[in-house]
Amino acid sequence: MKLRRAHIILVDISGYTQFIHRHRLSLIHAERIITELLECVIDASEHPLTLNKLEGDAALFYALIEEGDESSAGERERQSATAVLRQLQRFFAAFQNREQELVSECTMCACEACAKSGELRLKVIAHTGTILLKRVRQFEEIAGEDVIVAHRLLKNSVPSHEYLLLTEPFHALSGPPHDAPLETFTENCEGTGMIRIHVHYPSGASALKAHPVSFWRKLMTNIRLESHLVKRLFMKPARPFHHLPRVQNDAVSEA
Question: Residue 132: CB partners within 8 Å, gap ≥ 6?
Protein backbone atom coordinates (compact mmCIF):
# COMPACT_ATOMS: atom_id res chain seq x y z
CA MET A 1 0.00 0.00 0.00
CA LYS A 2 1.16 3.49 -0.77
CA LEU A 3 -0.18 7.04 -0.44
CA ARG A 4 0.21 9.19 -3.57
CA ARG A 5 -0.95 12.55 -4.85
CA ALA A 6 -3.12 12.03 -7.91
CA HIS A 7 -5.84 13.37 -10.16
CA ILE A 8 -9.06 11.36 -9.86
CA ILE A 9 -11.34 11.20 -12.90
CA LEU A 10 -14.87 9.79 -13.08
CA VAL A 11 -16.55 9.41 -16.47
CA ASP A 12 -20.29 8.78 -16.29
CA ILE A 13 -22.91 8.22 -19.00
CA SER A 14 -25.93 10.36 -18.26
CA GLY A 15 -29.34 8.85 -19.03
CA TYR A 16 -28.20 5.25 -18.50
CA THR A 17 -30.99 4.22 -16.08
CA GLN A 18 -33.77 5.37 -18.39
CA PHE A 19 -31.95 3.97 -21.40
CA ILE A 20 -31.77 0.39 -20.10
CA HIS A 21 -35.35 0.42 -18.77
CA ARG A 22 -36.63 -1.51 -21.79
CA HIS A 23 -37.87 -5.02 -22.56
CA ARG A 24 -35.35 -7.86 -22.73
CA LEU A 25 -34.25 -7.50 -26.37
CA SER A 26 -33.72 -3.74 -26.07
CA LEU A 27 -31.90 -4.18 -22.74
CA ILE A 28 -29.20 -6.31 -24.31
CA HIS A 29 -28.81 -3.94 -27.26
CA ALA A 30 -28.70 -1.01 -24.79
CA GLU A 31 -25.94 -2.73 -22.82
CA ARG A 32 -23.88 -3.20 -25.97
CA ILE A 33 -24.35 0.44 -27.01
CA ILE A 34 -23.26 1.63 -23.54
CA THR A 35 -20.23 -0.66 -23.79
CA GLU A 36 -19.20 0.78 -27.15
CA LEU A 37 -19.52 4.34 -25.86
CA LEU A 38 -17.45 3.58 -22.75
CA GLU A 39 -14.84 1.83 -24.88
CA CYS A 40 -14.47 4.84 -27.18
CA VAL A 41 -13.75 7.05 -24.14
CA ILE A 42 -11.26 4.52 -22.77
CA ASP A 43 -9.55 4.36 -26.17
CA ALA A 44 -9.17 8.16 -26.09
CA SER A 45 -7.24 8.00 -22.80
CA GLU A 46 -3.46 7.85 -22.56
CA HIS A 47 -0.62 8.59 -20.15
CA PRO A 48 -0.76 9.92 -17.45
CA LEU A 49 -4.32 8.57 -17.08
CA THR A 50 -4.72 4.98 -15.87
CA LEU A 51 -8.01 3.11 -16.06
CA ASN A 52 -8.72 1.75 -12.57
CA LYS A 53 -12.08 0.02 -13.01
CA LEU A 54 -15.50 0.10 -14.63
CA GLU A 55 -18.54 0.86 -12.48
CA GLY A 56 -21.59 -0.01 -14.57
CA ASP A 57 -22.16 3.07 -16.74
CA ALA A 58 -19.04 4.80 -15.37
CA ALA A 59 -15.27 4.48 -15.57
CA LEU A 60 -12.80 5.46 -12.85
CA PHE A 61 -9.37 6.77 -13.89
CA TYR A 62 -6.47 8.25 -11.98
CA ALA A 63 -3.23 9.99 -12.89
CA LEU A 64 -0.35 9.81 -10.45
CA ILE A 65 1.60 13.01 -9.93
CA GLU A 66 5.31 12.32 -10.30
CA GLU A 67 7.31 12.41 -7.11
CA GLY A 68 10.52 14.38 -6.84
CA ASP A 69 12.09 17.44 -5.33
CA GLU A 70 9.66 19.46 -3.16
CA SER A 71 10.71 22.72 -4.79
CA SER A 72 9.28 21.60 -8.13
CA ALA A 73 6.19 19.79 -6.78
CA GLY A 74 3.81 22.60 -7.73
CA GLU A 75 5.05 22.70 -11.31
CA ARG A 76 4.73 18.92 -11.69
CA GLU A 77 1.15 19.06 -10.44
CA ARG A 78 0.27 21.86 -12.87
CA GLN A 79 1.81 20.05 -15.83
CA SER A 80 0.02 16.80 -15.07
CA ALA A 81 -3.32 18.57 -14.50
CA THR A 82 -2.99 20.36 -17.83
CA ALA A 83 -2.20 17.09 -19.61
CA VAL A 84 -5.21 15.39 -18.00
CA LEU A 85 -7.53 18.28 -18.88
CA ARG A 86 -6.60 18.01 -22.57
CA GLN A 87 -7.57 14.34 -22.50
CA LEU A 88 -10.88 15.04 -20.78
CA GLN A 89 -11.82 17.46 -23.55
CA ARG A 90 -11.04 14.75 -26.11
CA PHE A 91 -13.37 12.39 -24.25
CA PHE A 92 -16.35 14.52 -25.22
CA ALA A 93 -15.34 14.65 -28.87
CA ALA A 94 -14.79 10.88 -28.98
CA PHE A 95 -18.11 10.19 -27.25
CA GLN A 96 -20.10 12.52 -29.49
CA ASN A 97 -18.51 11.15 -32.63
CA ARG A 98 -19.13 7.49 -31.72
CA GLU A 99 -22.69 8.27 -30.62
CA GLN A 100 -23.42 9.92 -33.97
CA GLU A 101 -21.98 6.88 -35.74
CA LEU A 102 -24.18 4.55 -33.69
CA VAL A 103 -27.27 6.63 -34.49
CA SER A 104 -26.53 6.16 -38.20
CA GLU A 105 -25.45 2.52 -37.92
CA CYS A 106 -28.38 1.30 -35.81
CA THR A 107 -31.12 2.37 -38.22
CA MET A 108 -31.65 -1.25 -39.32
CA CYS A 109 -32.80 -2.24 -35.82
CA ALA A 110 -36.27 -1.17 -34.69
CA CYS A 111 -35.79 -1.72 -30.93
CA GLU A 112 -36.13 1.22 -28.53
CA ALA A 113 -32.50 1.12 -27.42
CA CYS A 114 -31.17 1.52 -30.96
CA ALA A 115 -33.79 4.14 -31.79
CA LYS A 116 -32.79 6.23 -28.76
CA SER A 117 -29.03 5.70 -28.87
CA GLY A 118 -28.54 9.42 -29.54
CA GLU A 119 -30.06 10.54 -26.24
CA LEU A 120 -27.08 9.63 -24.03
CA ARG A 121 -24.70 12.27 -22.70
CA LEU A 122 -21.32 12.35 -20.95
CA LYS A 123 -20.44 13.74 -17.52
CA VAL A 124 -16.85 14.00 -16.29
CA ILE A 125 -15.67 14.73 -12.74
CA ALA A 126 -12.05 15.83 -12.16
CA HIS A 127 -10.57 16.11 -8.66
CA THR A 128 -7.06 16.29 -7.19
CA GLY A 129 -6.09 14.81 -3.86
CA THR A 130 -4.40 11.94 -2.05
CA ILE A 131 -5.19 8.32 -2.87
CA LEU A 132 -4.23 5.03 -1.31
CA LEU A 133 -2.98 2.53 -3.87
CA LYS A 134 -3.51 -1.07 -2.88
CA ARG A 135 -3.85 -4.49 -4.45
CA VAL A 136 -6.54 -6.99 -3.41
CA ARG A 137 -5.66 -10.36 -5.00
CA GLN A 138 -5.28 -9.56 -8.72
CA PHE A 139 -7.27 -6.33 -8.50
CA GLU A 140 -5.80 -2.85 -8.20
CA GLU A 141 -7.81 -0.49 -6.01
CA ILE A 142 -7.62 3.18 -5.15
CA ALA A 143 -9.17 4.43 -1.94
CA GLY A 144 -9.30 7.41 0.38
CA GLU A 145 -11.44 10.44 1.16
CA ASP A 146 -10.69 12.16 -2.14
CA VAL A 147 -11.90 9.12 -4.10
CA ILE A 148 -15.15 9.26 -2.10
CA VAL A 149 -15.50 12.98 -2.82
CA ALA A 150 -15.23 12.38 -6.58
CA HIS A 151 -17.97 9.74 -6.44
CA ARG A 152 -20.30 11.84 -4.30
CA LEU A 153 -19.98 14.75 -6.70
CA LEU A 154 -21.82 12.67 -9.31
CA LYS A 155 -24.93 13.73 -7.39
CA ASN A 156 -24.83 17.50 -7.74
CA SER A 157 -26.99 20.51 -8.57
CA VAL A 158 -25.51 21.22 -12.01
CA PRO A 159 -28.48 21.95 -14.33
CA SER A 160 -27.27 19.86 -17.25
CA HIS A 161 -26.86 16.24 -18.36
CA GLU A 162 -23.52 16.95 -20.05
CA TYR A 163 -20.63 18.77 -18.42
CA LEU A 164 -17.02 18.78 -17.29
CA LEU A 165 -16.86 19.39 -13.54
CA LEU A 166 -13.57 20.55 -12.01
CA THR A 167 -13.16 20.71 -8.25
CA GLU A 168 -11.30 23.68 -6.82
CA PRO A 169 -8.06 21.69 -6.21
CA PHE A 170 -7.99 20.45 -9.82
CA HIS A 171 -9.06 23.77 -11.35
CA ALA A 172 -6.38 25.65 -9.38
CA LEU A 173 -3.78 23.53 -11.20
CA SER A 174 -5.32 23.13 -14.66
CA GLY A 175 -7.16 26.38 -15.24
CA PRO A 176 -10.26 26.42 -17.48
CA PRO A 177 -10.44 24.40 -20.73
CA HIS A 178 -9.51 26.62 -23.71
CA ASP A 179 -9.83 29.63 -21.36
CA ALA A 180 -13.60 29.11 -21.57
CA PRO A 181 -15.86 30.79 -18.99
CA LEU A 182 -16.92 28.45 -16.22
CA GLU A 183 -19.93 28.44 -13.93
CA THR A 184 -19.05 28.16 -10.26
CA PHE A 185 -21.16 26.29 -7.71
CA THR A 186 -20.81 25.27 -4.10
CA GLU A 187 -21.90 21.71 -3.38
CA ASN A 188 -22.67 20.20 0.01
CA CYS A 189 -20.72 16.96 -0.23
CA GLU A 190 -22.00 14.49 2.36
CA GLY A 191 -19.38 13.78 5.00
CA THR A 192 -16.88 16.39 3.79
CA GLY A 193 -18.85 19.65 3.84
CA MET A 194 -19.05 22.40 1.23
CA ILE A 195 -16.98 21.98 -1.94
CA ARG A 196 -16.40 24.62 -4.61
CA ILE A 197 -16.71 23.35 -8.19
CA HIS A 198 -16.24 24.88 -11.65
CA VAL A 199 -18.36 23.60 -14.54
CA HIS A 200 -17.78 23.69 -18.30
CA TYR A 201 -20.54 22.80 -20.80
CA PRO A 202 -18.86 21.35 -23.90
CA SER A 203 -22.00 20.59 -25.94
CA GLY A 204 -21.57 21.70 -29.54
CA ALA A 205 -18.04 22.99 -29.01
CA SER A 206 -16.31 19.73 -29.85
CA ALA A 207 -18.97 17.80 -31.75
CA LEU A 208 -17.63 16.19 -34.90
CA LYS A 209 -19.53 16.09 -38.17
CA ALA A 210 -21.10 12.70 -38.79
CA HIS A 211 -20.10 11.01 -42.04
CA PRO A 212 -22.59 9.12 -44.24
CA VAL A 213 -22.82 5.47 -43.26
CA SER A 214 -22.98 2.79 -45.94
CA PHE A 215 -25.56 0.01 -46.05
CA TRP A 216 -22.85 -2.56 -45.33
CA ARG A 217 -21.64 -0.73 -42.24
CA LYS A 218 -25.21 -0.56 -40.93
CA LEU A 219 -25.60 -4.27 -41.68
CA MET A 220 -22.37 -5.15 -39.83
CA THR A 221 -23.44 -3.12 -36.80
CA ASN A 222 -26.78 -4.94 -36.77
CA ILE A 223 -25.01 -8.31 -37.03
CA ARG A 224 -22.71 -7.35 -34.13
CA LEU A 225 -25.70 -6.38 -31.98
CA GLU A 226 -27.53 -9.60 -32.80
CA SER A 227 -24.40 -11.64 -32.13
CA HIS A 228 -24.14 -10.01 -28.70
CA LEU A 229 -27.81 -10.84 -28.10
CA VAL A 230 -27.34 -14.53 -29.01
CA LYS A 231 -24.29 -14.85 -26.75
CA ARG A 232 -26.13 -13.33 -23.80
CA LEU A 233 -29.23 -15.47 -24.28
CA PHE A 234 -27.69 -18.87 -25.04
CA MET A 235 -24.10 -18.88 -23.81
CA LYS A 236 -22.38 -18.61 -20.43
CA PRO A 237 -21.76 -14.89 -19.76
CA ALA A 238 -18.19 -13.86 -20.43
CA ARG A 239 -16.20 -11.79 -18.00
CA PRO A 240 -17.06 -8.12 -18.76
CA PHE A 241 -14.48 -6.23 -20.80
CA HIS A 242 -12.16 -9.22 -20.82
CA HIS A 243 -10.56 -7.88 -24.00
CA LEU A 244 -9.28 -4.73 -22.30
CA PRO A 245 -5.54 -4.70 -21.58
CA ARG A 246 -4.63 -5.29 -17.98
CA VAL A 247 -3.74 -2.03 -16.29
CA GLN A 248 -0.27 -2.12 -14.83
CA ASN A 249 1.09 0.30 -12.26
CA ASP A 250 4.67 0.24 -11.11
CA ALA A 251 3.85 2.10 -7.90
CA VAL A 252 1.46 -0.62 -6.81
CA SER A 253 3.88 -3.39 -7.72
CA GLU A 254 6.54 -1.82 -5.57
CA ALA A 255 4.18 -1.32 -2.59
Answer: 1, 2, 3, 142, 143, 144
* Residue ranges of the chain with per-residue pLDDT less than 50: 23, 205-211, 213, 236-255
Could you tell me the CATH number of the domain that includes residue 87?
A: 3.30.70.1230
The range of the structural domain enclosing residue 228 comes to 2-237
Cis peptide before 48 (omega within 30 of 0): yes
The contacts of residue 56 (CB under 8 Å, 6+ apart) are: 16
Can you point out the beta strands (E) in the chain? Answer: 2-14, 50-55, 58-64, 121-136, 139-143, 163-167, 183-189, 193-200
pTM: 0.77
Q: Are 64 and 48 in contact (CB under 8 A)?
A: yes
Q: How many CB atoms lie within 10 A of CB 132?
A: 16
